[in-house]
Amino acid sequence: MxxxxxxxxxxxxxxxxxxxxxxxxxxxxISFNIDDGVFLAIAGPSGSGKxxxxxxxxxxxTPSAGKIVIDGVDIxxxxxxxxxxxxxxTISFVFQTFNLFxxxxxxxxxxxxxxxxxxxxxxxxxERVAFFxxxxxxxxxxxxxxxxxxxxxxxxxxxxxxxxxxxxxVLADEPTANLDYKTGESILSMMKAINRAFxxxxxxxxxxxxxxxxxxxxxxxxxxxxxxxxxxxxxVWKYVxxxxxxIPTSDGEMAQLLxxxxxxxxxxxxxxxxxxALLDDNxxxxxxxxxxx
Length: 293
Known about the structure:
alpha/beta
């Protein structure tokens, strides 16, 4: 059986900004694919370019060079109205600040993005709102406004709103940043369960180790460059450098790679199973390379 086409294809993407007389190279020749139904983290320190990448996948921004294909549609040269139409039917967002309308109730916030959809009837809107509020466990809070809800409950409303349009992709920008540890854990667990139940693709921009711990794909960006692609195989992460750095096949090669690559050294310190995975499975390069080229 033929495999599904990736829901997102990022091909040799560059993004430049002008800052006075200086040109800022925010992204430099980035290529990777996002398979349908994955739970993927775009990770990196502040200023690395991860949020810029998320914005372009979300059709909020466009590349300076290269191309991005969303659900089979090349966004290059699309008008703002065409991008808005693609977003409304294919992509939803979850923000760290929730971005709920303070004067609307929870159910009205969830319903809001559906009001612009002429293909969704009033009765279907009501059914979707009720279903997704129930999915996030907030049915009894449907009539509450945001100031009557906790931070975790507000983020649950935001997730229900994101799901109500039945998108192919949910983009989440640091969704746990404004939540306490326990609430953040609960929100992430719920998002992972939704990902599995509805096969909705989730893409996070994050530096939260908990998000990376739940992800099954990892894209790491530093200084605008893609440094690492990671694929989870069971409980073991298998990493491959995108730029032709070989997977080590011996202890000697491993030692040399660790000497040259402090980022991989840090990863191994965080994940003691990684060394064994790299040594035991040379196929990681082929698998991840297919997703990154």
